[in-house]
């Protein structure tokens, strides 16, 4: 079938029909053969039984009186025995039977009675046309019934039953009764012929039937395909029709719709991302333009030029950060970013990073405290994990008022190393909490607070944590502060999970 498909791209309906056809043909051949064999066996068995019965009936009319075999001619009354030939009760002087080539083996009576010395005392004319093996006489003389198939001179097969004639346990003769196998052969032949005629007919019907059934079954799928083809990338709010059949087709349609919905969301997200990115890129460029326009339009003092250059520099720096953040996310989306996995002590990374923000913290009069730092070995990318700690710490400092407190801790919970960053800052409103990990999302309170925030920091953090098979959660109350918890699998379980993956 595979070969067939490669050279001739047939539809699934035709394929199904061909499979059915093949299965039907094999089944029919098998059943035909079994039926034929059974029929032949049972017909042969019933023929043998009939022969046996007839032999017994003829034998009942034979008596042995003082060594002379007396035969009552009962053949005419026997069922199935129509003696159209005259009965010959003699043999040639030398004891050899005269072979009568023209005797009708098919319709003639096939009876022979032999004396104990093997001489025939009664032979029907048709019987003379048979080639009888010696065993069929010697075996009954030794008290054993002989049964077999013999051939006539004209080649026809005849079933022969040969039994001893007994009186007081002594064999005084042999009776042989035959029946032509021609009618059995004819019956079997006609059965085979009927099977050969009916078989292709049934096969043809089954082919039509299976094609029709397959066409019916694939109708809904065909409609589904057509609708799916009509759905454009720009028109992803369309859905395929869901049949109320509660079957595989319904499951397929539902899965299809779920997939379209996911695609729709992903496309929308991508479009929003591009729009937000362009907007964010435009802002610093516009700022630089307006600054340069101002100094170009009028004469400025060298101090003014320096001040503008400083401003341009910081805008360019912001632009640079934005572009590199965008690049990180774009590469993450494409799955291009390769993480450099190695065993790392999360607690040591935290104390390293802390040193880099101490100046900023003291500038803003915020106390940064180290809580419990449990030794925690994780598998991860050093640079990315430093980025995570730094972003959370930067945010904690950015959104905490002067005199506030930021606390950092590393604890072990449930085979995970948990980095906890807690601040006494402005907090996040419940409706913002579910969005802060989205790209470019900034709570209004944050916007009012620092202009430099872009809203990409937590999106990158979330991606890095996910890439490390970890989780990030936030608990926050407006005006009270926020707690960010990053849970990463400990090195042992991390390496096991990586092996599994
Ligand atoms: P950015 O800080 O550049 O605005 P982030 O992605 O880092 O972007 O954060 C997204 C938003 O989450 C912030 O705009 C702010 O509203 C909120 N947020 C993050 N960290 C804190 C925090 N420690 N306290 C209060 N709000 C926070």
Which descriptors would you attach to this protein?
alpha+beta, binds adenosine-5'-diphosphate, 501 residues, 5-stranded mixed beta sheet, Helix Hairpins, Beta-Lactamase, 52% helix, 6-stranded antiparallel beta sheet, 15 strands
Q: What is the rounded distance between the termini?
A: 36 Å
The level 1 CATH classification of the largest domain is Alpha Beta
Q: What fraction strand?
A: 15-25%
Largest sheet: 6 strands, antiparallel
Topology:
Layout: H1 2-7, H2 12-60, E1 62-65, E2 68-71, E3 110-115, E4 120-123, E5 130-131, H3 135-141, E6 146-152, E7 157-167, E8 170-180, H4 182-230, H5 248-297, H6 302-334, E9 342-345, H7 346-363, E10 367-373, E11 377-380, H8 382-398, E12 405-413, E13 416-423, H9 430-433, H10 444-449, H11 457-467, E14 471-477, E15 481-489, H12 491-500
Parallel strand pairs: 10-12
Antiparallel strand pairs: 1-2, 3-4, 3-8, 5-6, 6-7, 7-8, 9-11, 12-13, 13-15, 14-15
Helix pairs in contact: 2-4, 5-6, 6-11, 7-8, 8-11
The protein binds adenosine-5'-diphosphate.
Structural write-up:
The chain is α+β, with helices and mostly antiparallel strands and 501 residues long. The chain has four domains: 1-60 and 181-217, no CATH class; 63-180, Beta-Lactamase (2-Layer Sandwich), CATH 3.30.450; 248-334, Helix Hairpins, CATH 1.10.287; 342-500, 2-Layer Sandwich (Heat Shock Protein 90). It has twelve helices and 15 strands. It has helices at residues 2-7, 12-60, 135-141, 182-230, 248-297, 302-334, 346-363, 382-398, 430-433, 444-449, 457-467, 491-500, and strands at 62-65, 68-71, 110-115, 120-123, 130-131, 146-152, 157-167, 170-180, 342-345, 367-373, 377-380, 405-413, 416-423, 471-477, 481-489. The strands form four sheets. A six-stranded antiparallel sheet has the order 4-3-8-7-6-5. Strands 10-12-13-15-14 form a five-stranded mixed sheet. Strands 1-2 form a two-stranded antiparallel sheet. The model is unreliable at 77-102 (pLDDT under 50). Bound molecules: adenosine-5'-diphosphate. Adenosine-5'-diphosphate binds next to α8 and α11.
């Amino acid at each position: 079938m595979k070969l067939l498909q490669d050279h001739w791209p047939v539809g699934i309906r035709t394929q199904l029909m061909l499979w059915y056809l093949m299965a039907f043909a094999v089944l029919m051949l098998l059943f035909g053969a079994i039926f034929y064999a059974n029929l032949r066996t049972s017909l042969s068995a019933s023929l043998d039984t009939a022969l046996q019965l007839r032999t017994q009936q003829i034998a009942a009319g034979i008596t042995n009186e003082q060594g002379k075999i007396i035969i009552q001619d009962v053949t005419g009354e026997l069922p199935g025995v129509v003696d159209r030939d005259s009965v010959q009760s003699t043999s040639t002087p030398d004891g050899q039977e005269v072979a009568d080539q023209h005797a009708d083996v098919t319709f003639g009576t096939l009876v022979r009675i032999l004396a104990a010395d093997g001489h025939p005392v009664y032979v029907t004319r048709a019987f003379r046309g048979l080639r009888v093996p010696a065993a069929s006489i010697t075996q009954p003389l030794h008290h054993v019934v002989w049964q077999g198939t013999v051939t006539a001179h004209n080649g026809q097969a005849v079933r022969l039953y040969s039994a001893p004639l007994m009186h007081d346990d002594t064999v005084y003769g042999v009776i042989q009764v035959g029946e032509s196998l021609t009618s059995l052969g004819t019956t079997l032949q006609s059965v085979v012929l009927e099977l050969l005629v009916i078989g292709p007919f049934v096969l043809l019907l089954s082919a039509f039937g299976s094609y029709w059934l397959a066409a019916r079954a694939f109708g809904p799928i065909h409609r589904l395909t057509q609708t799916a083809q009509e759905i454009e990338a720009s028109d992803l709010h369309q859905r395929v029709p869901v049949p109320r059949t509660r079957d595989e087709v319904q499951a397929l349609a539902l899965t299809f719709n779920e997939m379209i919905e996911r695609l729709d969301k992903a496309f929308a997200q991508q479009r929003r991302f591009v729009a937000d990115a362009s907007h964010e890129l435009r802002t610093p460029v516009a700022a630089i333009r307006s600054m340069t326009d101002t100094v170009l339009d009028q004469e400025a003092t060298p101090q003014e030029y320096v001040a503008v250059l400083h401003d341009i520099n910081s805008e360019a720096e912001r632009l640079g950060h934005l572009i590199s953040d965008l690049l990180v996310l774009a590469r993450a989306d494409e799955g291009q970013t390769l993480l450099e996995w190695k065993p790392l002590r999360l607690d040591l990374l935290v104390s390293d990073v802390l040193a880099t923000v101490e100046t900023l913290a003291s500038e803003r009069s915020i106390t940064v405290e180290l809580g419990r730092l449990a030794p925690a070995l994780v598998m991860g990318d050093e640079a990315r994990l430093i980025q995570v700690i730094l972003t959370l710490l930067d945010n904690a400092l950015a959104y905490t008022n002067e005199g506030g407190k930021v606390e950092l801790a590393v604890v072990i919970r449930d085979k995970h190393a948990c980095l906890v960053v807690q601040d006494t800052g402005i907090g996040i409103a419940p409706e913002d909490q579910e969005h802060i990990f989205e790209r470019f999302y900034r709570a209004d309170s944050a916007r009012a607070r620092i202009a430099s925030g872009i809203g990409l920091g937590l999106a990158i953090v979330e991606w890095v944590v996910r890439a490390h098979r970890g989780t990030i959660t936030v608990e926050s109350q407006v005006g009270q502060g926020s707690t960010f918890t990053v849970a990463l699998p400990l090195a042992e379980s991390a390496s096991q999970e990586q092996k599994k993956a």
